[in-house]
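Q: I have two molecules that I believe assemble together. Could you output structure tokens for the complex as a whole instead of separate predictions?
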Amino acid sequence: MAGVVLTSTADRTPVAVLELEDGRVLDVNPAACRLLGRDTGDLVGRRLSELLSVGSRFFFETHCRPILAARGEVAEVSLEVRGAHGRCVPVLLYGSCDEAGRLRLVLVTAFERHAHDAELRRMRRRERAHNDLQALKIGRAHV
Amino acid sequence: MRTVLPAADVLVRNNVSVSGRHGGRALVFVHGFACDQRMWRHVTPAFAPDHRIVLLDQVGGGRSDLGAYDPARYSSLEGYAEDLVQVAEALDLHDAVVVGHSVGAAAAVLAHLKAPERFTALALVNPSPRYVDDPETGYVGGLTPSDVEELLATIDVNFAGWADVMAPVIMNQPRHPELGRELTDIFCETDPDIASRWARVSFLSDIRELLPAVGAPTLVLQCADDPIVPEEVGRWMADRLSAGTFVLMEATGHCPHLSAPGETAQALAAFLAGDARAA
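A: Yes, here they are, computed for all two components at once.
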């Protein structure tokens, strides 16, 4: 049964699994089709960059690719994919890359985490603006 | 105002390393947003026999001195470019070639304009003079303003975990020793506040109007199918340089020095040979 069990697991698992070669989709599981709102035939051959939002594409290419090349894996990357009807869906991405450059990705939807992150980010931005203002005031006081 | 720093301080600040042939023409490699000099590790060996190899980490990246990060100095690419000039001064470089990737290429252009006698040729790998579209002039950089906001949010969220990753490393007690994460494996990670500011400076930069002032021979090396910089941007940029050469690679993606180091080194070597013949 070795090999068959996991293949069947990938077919039934609720998380999206994609395999890519040379930057293009080679195979996907049914959960990936549901997440991305496209059937297998429509996904195979597509570039990863077409499946990500623009900001996520920039982040993946400038940040995740070098890490994948150096370390062979990335984990818990918070991104957005283009889902059904062009709607952006927040996901956590886990990926590994082998010597031949073949990329295996797992995408898990992360709606709650996304909302939480957005709130944290608002708080940090406020704090940073406050600190910058304080620094400016101190700077002025020394002039 | 120029700040005068002792050479040793500059070299520590930017974690400068020098190797290769003493007396050979210097190649100064400049990495892009949030990464470090290890991005060039597969390209530099080809040049070590004939060239002096200068590698550095831009402040905020790799093993640069994070204590030297001054939000005012690095609020535009000028600060990063000034650092490159200071490195060249500290090493007393003349007639060097500056090789910059992505936004590191924009800093390289500025550094050349500040010190044209020190940086006499430029090799720009997947550069962009401006990432954001400019509807007024019809320029298409690839990003809309709302894309930029989304990108900055993505960067903020993903760098937020940096302290969690770094704390056990600094304490030399890996939380997940089975992953073998040593200090050397911390790559393309940095302080979340620095990453956020650096991203803003990088992806909102605009050096378009400076391009005609660049007189030095300049290679614009562009990947096919770059998901970040449209091919037309590379061509557009090369057209505006008085001595620009556009080369489209077979390699795809945004980081050919990682994905196709051989082709990258070959293109760079051809450019250097042509420049040496012209000199």
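A: One point stands out. Chain A touches chain B at residues 22-23, 47, 49, 53-59, 61-63, 65-67, 69-71, 76-80, 101, 117-118, 120-121, 124-125, 128, 132, 135 (CB under 8 Å).
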